[in-house]
Amino acid sequence: MEADSTLLPLAISDFSELRQNGMVYVDKTRMVYELARNDVPIFLTRPRRFGKSLLVSTFESLFSRGLEDFKGLEIENLWKEERTYSIMHLDFSRISGETGEEFKEDFADELKFLGKPFGFYSDQTDYRKVERAFDDWLQGEPSNKYVLLIDEYDHPLTSFLNKPDDFKKALFALSRFYATIKGCKKAFRFIFITGIARFQKASLFSAMNNISDITLDPDYGSLLGYTQEELEQYFDPYLIHAAQTLKMSKKELLARIQAQYDGFCFDKSAQYRLYAPWSVLKFLNRPASGFKQYWTESGGGLTLLKEYFTTHKLLNPDDYDKEQRLTKSKLSDPAKVNTINPIALMTQAGYFTIDHVDGNSFYLRYPNGEVRAAMARMYTEYLFRNRSSLMNNLNNIVDAIKNTEADKIVQILNTAFLSIPYDRSKVVFNEAS
Length: 433
Prior knowledge:
The chain is α/β, with parallel strands linked by helices. About 45% of the residues lie in helices and about 10% in strands. It has 20 helices and eight strands. The strands form two sheets. It has a five-stranded parallel beta sheet, with helices on both faces. A three-stranded antiparallel beta sheet has the order 6-8-7. Helix 4 runs parallel beside helix 5 and helix 4 runs parallel beside helix 7. The longest helix is centred in the middle third of the chain and has 20 residues. It is globular. About 35% of the residues are buried. The C terminus is likely disordered.
């Protein structure tokens, strides 16, 4: 097999399209099979760009098309269910709205769009009336007719993190929706929900108290992301091509990729180490461009963090380069939005990862070089925000060091320290445990 870059599934989140075009697919279908056997709602969080949407699409293909797209995959010899189902796919990232009221209006339209192919109709515009009509309609639907797939469930809430009134309005709409889904559970053969953060007040956990949260489950620790074995098994021709392009041995290349993109861990036993799929695919697509920060440049979690830190104190940057300890409950239990532990939030967003476990505590660290560099950049932006002239001046320090201009170096550093806006970004230490 040659390294054909057109077969790398970059920006492809449609499983059927991926399979029909013969693109590289890391076979995770044994775990897909285990999950698809369930009749209880399943919940999973992972950072952005880790393949959640592709996983949702995989379930959509399985339940709507059977094994048509799964030839040669492990699930082909496991899945015996011949019946197919009607799919309701709800992606909250597609529901806009600059305010809480706009979100409710857009959500009402989305509900009408969601049910229209199956006979639901409402001429109302008020969200409460549309949602009530949706509830009434679902109550009359046959048992096990639908599969409900929800992507980015937390997007409406993270969008309004710093707007309390809008947050409450979005929360109201979501709570009614999840209560309806719970009350009409008989209509659904399978429910799968993904997101990034685990918010107690998302109403998901209170309305759907029978939900199975597999976020930290070791059985699904490698469900999203690539293990070392998978990287070498599925991408060997691309690794050889990259090594040749960069004039490295394959061993040297693997060490560099591992240091830059590996290290993510999502299971409570700290069993699996995973590569960020987006970073690996982008690198293998253009190895001549070097080991860039692909995941973070694509917005891997930064939006969520920036929203949070807009109204919360910025923690000590030096403290973040040290191992962090977090009690298991603070990472595994859904948190209130306004009191979520910053370390827990950063772990959910992918900026910290589980290094090891000891008793009732997780020990956390940066997963890799890519994330470490991104965090340094983020803190610099916050400490020196609105100081563009200073940042331009700091760029001159490299030249000053090269030319051994000691006086100039001291002058630049003094200017930097004096310009840190301590009044707006108080540096504090955080008790993570």
